[in-house]
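Need a sequence for this fold. Nothing fancy.
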């Protein structure tokens, strides 16, 4: 009986050892431990396999062709190896107006642009920060901006000036000075976005050739009828009235009338001369003013929208709405034609503020003397 118990105990010990060895062989012996790093997740498992794609398949880990797997799928790995999966993202990419979906494994927007071989200029516009993380939820939009300088010319029509002349018969006209059109040069900057013209604004205006106003003489001379025959018939009457004439002369009334007539003639002549001088000088008159420049967008005091050609003045000197021509007195390009549209707290007396389209132009202009011609 004691021997039977002894044999049973030995059998149990042998079975336990055999079971332990079997467990070791089937669960531990021949297995490697692997780590799979999938984005923010880390998976740990054992496998007897040692090829990356077989290990992933065994553990039901799927991947796309655009994903990056390190080591490569056909690589063999050893125990305690780490397999890294970098998942690609489907990014909505609007590039210069063209929309597409692009797969990328980049971590940031900057890396994405480098991956797409895109270099941005300082004028190009992108809707997200270059340092921001790449996300499928945020489309990337790039607009390419370019500028082009153009020079255009415009014709300045001459004005027709009519002037009375007592040397021409009434109703008769004569062109004294033939009118000639002038030429104005306009430098413009054109802004293109993705190859399409979006905006054009004036950079400068200058008069290349001044117009010559046409001067037309208008006759005012009255025709005098021939009275020689009537004079001969009236001669006897004049002889008979000699006495009356003598008396009238003695009274001095004839002399007074003659003097008054002469004075009136002299006055009319003087008035006509002065009027002629005023007209001749007015076309060349200008106001020498101190000019500054501004670049404030909005509505002017006259109700017009601010922009090139709209200037601020002192209404006590130049009424709002007055048409002007502004000429430079130095090497700076002349401003050209403008309208008095705005006022300003500092714009008093012979001061004028010129609108320019860019802040840099205003800084470069500074403060200068200009000639201001009133043309209406």
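Here you go.
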């Amino acid at each position: 009986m004691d021997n039977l118990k002894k044999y049973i105990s030995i059998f149990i010990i042998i079975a336990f050892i055999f079971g332990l060895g079997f467990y070791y062989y089937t669960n531990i012996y021949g297995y490697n431990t692997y780590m799979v790093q999938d984005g923010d997740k880390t998976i740990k498992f054992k496998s007897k396999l040692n090829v990356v794609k077989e290990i992933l398949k065994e553990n039901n880990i799927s991947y796309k062709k655009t994903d990056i797997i390190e080591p490569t799928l056909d690589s063999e790995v050893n125990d305690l190896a780490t397999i890294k999966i970098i998942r690609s993202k489907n990014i909505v990419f609007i590039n210069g107006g063209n929309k597409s979906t692009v797969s990328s494994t980049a971590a940031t927007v900057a890396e994405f642009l480098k991956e797409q071989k895109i270099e941005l200029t300082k004028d190009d516009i992108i809707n997200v920060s270059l340092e921001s993380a790449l996300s499928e939820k945020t489309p990337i939009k790039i607009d390419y901006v370019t500028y082009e300088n153009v020079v255009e010319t415009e014709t300045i029509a001459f004005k027709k000036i009519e002037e009375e002349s007592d040397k021409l018969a009434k109703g008769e006209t004569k062109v004294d000075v033939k009118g000639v059109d002038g030429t104005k040069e306009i430098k413009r900057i054109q802004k293109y976005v993705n190859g399409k013209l979006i905006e054009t604004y004036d950079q400068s205006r200058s008069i290349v050739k001044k117009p010559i106003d046409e001067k037309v003489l208008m006759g005012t001379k009255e025709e005098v009828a021939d009275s020689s025959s009537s004079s001969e018939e009236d001669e006897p009457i004049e002889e008979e009235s000699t006495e009356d004439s003598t008396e009238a002369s003695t009274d001095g009334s004839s002399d007074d009338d003659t003097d008054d007539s002469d004075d009136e003639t002299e006055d009319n002549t003087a008035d006509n001369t002065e009027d002629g001088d005023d007209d001749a000088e007015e076309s060349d008159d200008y106001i020498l003013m101190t000019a500054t420049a501004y670049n404030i967008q909005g509505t002017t005091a006259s109700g017009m929208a601010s922009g090139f050609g709209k200037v601020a003045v002192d209404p006590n000197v130049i009424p709002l709405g007055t048409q002007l021509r502004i000429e430079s007195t130095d090497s700076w390009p002349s401003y050209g034609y403008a309208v008095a549209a705005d006022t300003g707290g500092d714009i008093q007396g012979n001061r004028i503020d010129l609108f320019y389209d860019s802040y840099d132009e205003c800084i470069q202009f500074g403060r200068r003397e200009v000639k201001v011609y009133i043309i209406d």
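For context: The helical segments are 2-27, 52-58, 109-115, 228-240, 242-251, 253-282, 359-365.
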